Amino acid sequence: MSSHQEILQAALFARKAGLSLQVEGQPGIGKTAIGIELAQHWKIPYVIVGMAQTDSIEMQGALVVTECNGVRIADFLPMAKWVDATHQAFVIILDEYGQAPIALQNAASDLLLNKRVGSTSLHPDTFVIATSNRQSDRAGTTRRPSQIINRSLVMELSTSSQDWLEWYLSTTPHPLVVGFLNFRQDLLSTFDPKQSDKPYASPRSWVMWSELLRSGLPKALWLACASGLIGEAPALEFLAFSRLTDECQDPILLLKDPSAYKEPSDIGTLNATAMAIANAVKPEWVENFFELANDKFPAEISAVMVKVAASRDNSLTRGKGWSRWAATTGK
Asked: What is the pTM assigned to this prediction?
């Protein structure tokens, strides 16, 4: 199994070598996002082909009859998206490849090996990435023919809490979600193939839960909605963690006077306090913030705390406090 970063790095060299990539792994762990991230890195457009919702005409084109030297011939007229990809490099994401019928997987196999759809050859710098769940996940995946597996680089994406948190902190993270998953990394993914008909926690569902929290969802609905996105057990744990923030010292008071800080007696409250401070900091309190981050919190919590604060306001990463923190804890 490979980490998110390992697959990204491998993809960079695969493109140079003219190879395509197949990424497999359990549902909701960010397989499709890898293709989008690569397109953004290369600054080229991407197209997502939902293989489970695609038919052979969309893949090979429509059959038309033309006349050549008085002889009527039949040929496939390519779909517009493939014509566009002949003129410039694209990232083609064949999403849910394993859920497509075998006939459609075979129709797309030439795309994986030769960047060709029917009689249409795509731009030579186009990169093709196919994503698929595993058969063991019981996610509607069919067996992939052996010749398709042998047509590209195949890698299995692992679920890594640290990798995911690193990525999530580069977006617009919700401090409660960051604090909770830094505290309970084992709940990033609770997928169980034997109970796949019930909501479960995954990197994807945690992002959806974050967005629902950002929408201003009333606390009275948190349990019901979280249970429907990340599963009942993680939802109960998350609500218990969120209540810790109510028991924390006032973050504004601490930012005004770091000497008032009293170390919590348990790790959950420590995480909750760090995230509350990171979410409350303003530029006028930046030196006090870094005093707290440097002197009051363990390095692994301090690092997440600073990343959350910086994601809200990057101007905080300037000044003496930042320099001192970077020299001691930044690595």
From this structure: 0.71
